Amino acid sequence: MAGSVPASNLLAADSSSAVDSSGDRDSIRERDLRDLPVVSRDSGNARGKVAVVSPVDKMLTAEAVEKAVKQADSELWTTTTLNLWTRPDAKAEKLGELASDKKVLVTGRSMNGREEIVLNGQARWVTAGYLSADKPFALGGDCTNGSSVPSAVSPNITLVHEAVCANFPELTSYGTFRSDGEHAQGIAIDIMVSGDRGWQVAEFVRAHYAELGVSYVIYSQSIWSVERSGEGWRGMEDRGSTTANHYDHVHVTTY
């Protein structure tokens, strides 16, 4: 049939367009393939189509996960309760929760706002940003020096005592109830300490005022309060004695 066979000059033109200036047809194909995404052939697809492998799927191959778990050698602390996920994307299934203040092995791999950890030998994923090299501050800790406060004081006073006792175990003398003011209400505590150690205690309580429910702290004739926290430590008037001026104890009032 007329026109069924292309003219020889057209075939030559089509053929030459697939050759680069050096005459190497394969060089163009290689350059094109380098820019393609990683793919895998779907053996169940009769037409032989290929499926793109996502970065997450590539990260979660058995070989990649096994290598990450084996190489994990760093531990971090959880700073809050975290959900445990099977993977770092929308296909993830929740497997449970990981409590706060737990030390976990990490692989160093992260993706989509999640970090990979190793739990019971298995790779799991948690929300990024809640793992720390430093052990989180524990409100209570372990008070092992035998000191205590009356059960009738406010819960916040109990927290203050437990926290100070755990972090300054050499301090064993605490004053709570007496007939006047906030002490009578069970919302104030005197921590018997002096000198530089007293400042360390005062600063410790001030730094954790929110966790401990602290309203204000007095030490060494100085006061710090939540309401005027922007002013830092403020000087106080002379009350006439070492004890009245709080040189021999840290006074803490809670909410």
Automatic annotation (TrEMBL):
Start-end of Basic and acidic residues biased regions: 22-35
InterPro entries: ARB_07466-like_C (IPR058593)
TM stretches of this protein: none
Bias (Low complexity): 7-21
Signal peptide: none
Pfam family, one: VldE
Region (Disordered): 1-35
Domain annotation ARB-07466-like C-terminal: ranges: 152-247
Protein name: Mucin-2 protein
